[in-house]
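Record format v2
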Amino acid sequence: MIIFRNVSKIYFPERTVALANVSFEVLAGEFISIVGKSGTGKTTLVKILTAEERASEGQVVVGGWDITHIRSREVPYLRRQIGVVFQDYKLLQKKTVFENVAFAMQVIGARPSRIRKIVPEVLKIVGLADKHDRFPRHLSGGEQQRVAIARALAHGPKILVADEPTGNLDTATSQEIIELLLKINQIGTTVLFVSHDEGRVNQIRRRVLVLDQGTLTSDEAVGRYRLS
Amino acid sequence: MLVTIYRVIKFAWQGFWRNFWLSLVTVSIIALASLTVNALLALNVVADSAVTSLEQKIDVSIYFDPVVDTPKVKEVQDYLGKLSQVTAITLVTADDAMKEFRQRHARDAAILETLEELGDNPLGATLVVTAQHPSDYPEIIQVLNHSPYRDLVSDENYKDHQRTINEIRLIADRINQAGIAISALFVLIATLIVFNTIRVAIYTHRDEIGIMKLVGASNAFITAPFVLEGVLYALCATGLAVAVTFPLLNAVQPYLQDFFTGVPLDLAGYFRENFVAIFGSQLLGMSALNMVGSVFAVRRYLKV
């Protein structure tokens, strides 16, 4: 599903090495945690996956599509294959919950009848069916993150990337979000959970990739994350 | 395709209403730019009317020998009246000229006495010629001097008035030139104001644009609603400008009329007569500006 082959990312002009020779493969249907302390290259890895950044070296393949040298005009098509959840939610503040989720389907040209069918279903999965007409500012942090997850799922992506989705949430709400991600994984979506939260990652008991100063230091099938 | 067009229109409409205060400020600034251009246009109309009125006050008198009879003078009147440069030509007969002369010198006993002594009317008929434009007078005089009627003319006062006519022409030309230069400057300023207003409006949407990109929206799908919103701004601003311009013109009209006594002025009438040209061109111009401004401003935030 996802292949990173000897990927490096160097930021110029300071020549900061964000990723150094990182290689791994993610199979379809896997739940994988990518962990590491702040500034170890986790977000850079996500940005390369969503083509916000290009790899300086190596090869990146997503769903059989080599995106290493993806052209700007192809980027929207890549992003429609991947659902992304961000730490700061990134919701459209002037759109309602329903409209935020529907937007992900509108950009792929989904018919209104399909949007009217799918969006309530997805909102039901994340537990926000009764708040479809609220604006993001009227929701709690956890609810906003649920909307972001619903939006990431609405267009039926095969991959869901969650970049520090619990970073701004309290313990109980974080737990709910993790459970939601596991539930999404159970229905067949490949999930990449990016976090620096040791407790959360260890509790999931799935495959863990550990990044340290841009280098992949550990890749265990049922891994643990230990702060060094 | 139809679904996409519907969505673009819907997003533009939502963007306009859900950012009401931003839209109101943007529309107000664009309307102010439009009003500034209209104010200058009104000033140009006033200046034009004043200059035209002044030019219309200029005329040249052609004096005939007393021996030339009225039918012959009428022949010359017909001849000159056919010239396209001539707008009016009035015949003052020898008798009328004498009557006027007597009235003018009614209190001057010496002159009246001299006239009595002369017995016959020493004055000839006069043709008072008004031209389309002050610059037409030399040509009219030249046509007369090269006509078979040249020997009938004893004198004309063009040369006496030439300096005044030239000065009026010069003032009129300078007013026109200044009007064009100031208009160009105001249009440029208005363009910059409108362009920057749109840039600021789009700047407030920069995060939204970035999020849309991350969700997988194409550049065209993101940009189109903003472009349409720009047209909505232009439409509302023009409506606002129309709503303010006419009451304003009606309010200043009496003061202008008092100030330019004798100059026929109907500013509201001018704006009504040229409504489509004035406000239509402003709507088109501002729409085009807003569209171009939106495309450039949005493009900056699409690099995600």
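The interface with chain A takes residues 3-4, 7, 14-15, 18-19, 208, 210-219, 221, 304 of chain B (CB under 8 Å).
Strands of chain B lie at 60-64, 86-92, 126-131, 153-156.
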